[in-house]
Amino acid sequence: MSVNPMIYETQFFGFTPQTCLLRVYIAFQDYLFEMMLVVEGVMLKKLDGTPGCKISPSQIRKCTEKFLLFMKEHFDKLFSKMEEVLLQLVLNIPKNVLLPEDRVHEQYSYSKEEFQALQDELQQLQQQCRAEAAAEQALRAELEEQKAVKAELEKILQCFDGLENICREHGAGNFKESFALLTQSSKKLQDVLRDVEEKSRKMKQHDQSA
């Protein structure tokens, strides 16, 4: 059998030409074996009804096997020629013939250099797409962070609004002014606290020295 892969023919037929010929060869061979068995059976019946026949069934079987071997050798030679003819003239697609699904390659043909340039351009576009996807992901993360900060700011504003309402209910006037006074008072308290702590530390040192 031919070892040529015949890929284009396989694409067109849906099977390899070698596989087709192998099945044909096996079918002819099986038919030859069956035919020999039929001939052998007929000969056995004829000889069985002939009086004084000295040919035994084993001798007939030997003769059948020899004839079968002779037929198989000639059949192999004939089939080899038939295979060559079929592969060249029947199951072969000429080099100048394009299948309908491959016509696009003829219309848009590219050299190796042009194909490589397209590959390089495709790779660059893929890198750009990955970079844009990463940037989009970073922007989405930043947007989520801004949303979280905005939510916290809104809570703080709500808290200030609540404090301002409380100040108004208790006649404290403007919340901003009250908050400024509260800050100044807090600073004064912190200064007094530091002064008390400093005096306490000095008194402890005096007691320990005494």
Written account of the structure:
Its main location: nucleus. With 210 residues, this protein is mainly α. The protein folds into two domains: 94 residues, no CATH class; 69 residues, no CATH class. The protein is built from six helices and no strands. Helix 2 packs antiparallel against helix 3. The protein is elongated. The mean pLDDT is 79.
Provide keyphrases for this structure.
single chain; 210 residues; mainly alpha; 2 domains; 81% helix; mitosis
Pattern of helices and strands: HHHHHH
What is Rg?
Answer: 52 Å
Helix content: over 70%
Helix-strand category: mainly alpha
Count of domains: 2
Number of helices: 6
Low-confidence stretches: none
Q: Hey, roughly how much beta strand do the residues contain?
A: under 5%
Give the biggest sheet. none
Distance between the termini: 120 Å
Nearest-integer average pLDDT:
79
What's the β-strand tally? 0
Shape: elongated
InterPro entries: Centromere_Mis12
Protein name: Protein MIS12 homolog
Coiled coil: 108-156
Family: Belongs to the mis12 family.
In a nutshell, what does this entry contain?
By secondary structure, the chain is mainly α.
Describe the secondary-structure layout.
Elements (H helix, E strand, L loop, with lengths): L6 H7 L3 H32 L8 H34 L12 H5 L4 H58 L5 H35 L1
Helix pairs in contact: 2-3
Organism: Malurus elegans (Red-winged fairywren)
Keywords: Cell cycle, Cell division, Centromere, Chromosome, Coiled coil, Kinetochore, Mitosis
Pfam family, one: Mis12
